[in-house]
C-alpha cells in the first residue's frame, strides 16, 4: 500500500523534473499541523545559491505539482516551505485501504535481508541486571519490527559463558562453596563465591595466580574444571530462561562465547596470514595505523601467554554469522561502553572483506532516582528478575483497585501484562542514547506517555464492542464530518509511514510516541463524538474508527513486545 507521504514524494519528484529542477529536499510530516499535514523544504535546499529566491522557486514548483486529487492547493509559507493539506475525502478513502490491508498499510521493506540480531547476551555466573533490560527489550523490539517489515530475523543470544571470570568461579567453587546455599539458590551462591574470590584476588597475588591456573586448566580441557563450568552454565541458563519467559523473548540461536572456543586459533592464523594481524612483543595484535580514531588503540587477539580475548571471540562470531548463518546484516544491541571494542571488530571485518552490514546499536544507562547508576540499597546491581516481579506486584495493586471483581487468574494475567509492559515501554519510549531515571510511579501511571495509558485506551475500545455486542461493521465509506474524526483517521494512515522509519536509526521511540499521540487523538475523538448513541451511518463509521484504532494500538504495542489485556 502506498502512503500519503510516498505518493507526495513521487509527485514532488515529478514536479521538480517538470520544472527543470534537480531532485532535492525532503518530504516530511508538517512540523506545525496548523499549516498542513506534510511539507517540503525542496525550494529552500535548491535556493541556496544567492541568485535563486526560494519563495519564487517554491511557487514554480507548486505550479508543476499535480496533487489536487487528494490535497488542497499547496501553499508556500515562510522562507519557501511548501505545505500540503490532505482533503477529508482522500483521508477517508485511504483509511478504508488501511483497514483492508493485512499489514495495516505497512509495505514490506526492499530488499529483504537476513539479519542476525545480537541482544540480551548476559554473562554466566552473574545474574542479569537492569543494564541487560535495555539490550533485551530494545533488541527484541527491533527484531519484531524487522520481521514485520518482511526481513528474515535470527535472534542470537551471545551469552558470556567463557572467559576470565571462570578462573575465579572455579577457584571459589573449589574453596568457598556452601553446598546448602547452592541448593537453596544456586545462582546467588555462585555469584557470592565469584565475588568473594574476586575480592581475595585483588588483595592476594597468590589467589590471583591460583585463579589463573584454574582458568588455564579449564581451557586445556581439565575434566573436573569442565564439570564445574558446565554446572555453572546450567544454573545460570535456568535463571536467564525464567527472565526471558517473563519478558516473552525467544531466541533462534544461543551461541555463547564458548561455542566459538575451538575456532579461535583459526581466527588468529587467518589474520596473521592475511597480514591484518602481526606479532608484537610476543602477542598477536591488529594495529589500525591509518585510522585516526583507532591509531593508538591496537586490538590484541592473542595474548603473550597464548590466551585469547573477547575480541577474538567476536571475530570468530562475525565469521560464523556471515559464512554459516548467511547474514546480510548483523545488529549488535550492546551498551555504549563497548563502542570502541565494536569499532575495532567492524574495522577488522571490513579489512577481511565480509559483505555484511555491521551495526552497533548502542544505548545509555538506567539510573536510580538519585541520578546515579541504578543499584540496590546495599550498592549491588538490581537483578532483572526481582525488578520484573516487583513491577507485576505493583501492577496488581492497580488491577485490584480498578477492577476488584475480576477472577484471580485474570488478575494475575492482567498484572503481568501491565507490569512487564510498563518496564518495557519506559525503556522503548526514550531515545535509546539517553540515560533514563527508573521511576515506578511514572511508569505505572495511567496518565501520560506510559504503557498502562496505552493499554487502557485499548481496553476502552474493547469495552465499546462488548457493550455494542457486535464486531465492527463492514463498510465501504467512512464519514469524516467532525474534525476529531478526520484527525484520528489521519493518524491511522500514518502508522504505515512511521514503522519503516524506526529502522533508519533504530529508534522504537518513534513508534512509542506515535502510539501515544494516537491514543490522545482517540480520547479527543471519543469525547467529541458519541459512538453507540449516534445515528447511522455515523455510528458504523465511528465503530470502524474505534476498531481500527484498537488494531493499530495492539499491533504497535506488539511490535514493542508489549501485550494488551482485554480488561483492566
Ligand atoms: N556478554 C556481554 C556483556 O554482558 C555482551 C555481549 C555482546 N555481544 C557481543 N557479540 N560482544 O557485556
Characterise the protein shown here.
The protein has helices at residues 4-18, 42-46, 54-64, 88-100, 130-148, 165-176, 179-184, 186-203, 205-219, 223-247, 264-273, 310-324, 339-351, 384-402, 408-428, 440-443, 451-468, 483-502, 508-528, 538-559; strands spanning 27-29, 38-40, 75-77, 81-84, 114-118, 152-156, 278-280, 283-286, 299-302, 329-333, 357-361, 366-367, 436-437. It is an alpha/beta fold and 568 residues long. It has four domains: 4-86, Gyrase A, domain 2 (2-Layer Sandwich), CATH 3.30.1360.70; 87-117 and 370-568, Orthogonal Bundle (Isoleucyl-tRNA Synthetase, Domain 1), CATH 1.10.730.10; 165-247, no CATH class; 255-306, no CATH class. Helix 5 links the parallel strand 5 and strand 6. It starts with a helix and ends in a 9-residue tail after the last helix. The model has no long low-confidence stretch (mean pLDDT 94). Bound molecules: arginine. Residues 118, 121-123, 158, 160, 314, 317, 332, 334 line the site of arginine. Arginine binds at residues 118, 121-123, 158, 160, 314, 317, 332, 334.
Question: What key phrases describe this protein's structure?
Answer:
Gyrase A, domain 2; 568 residues; binds arginine; 13 strands; Isoleucyl-tRNA Synthetase, Domain 1; four-stranded antiparallel β-sheet; 53% helix; 4 domains; four-stranded parallel β-sheet; alpha/beta
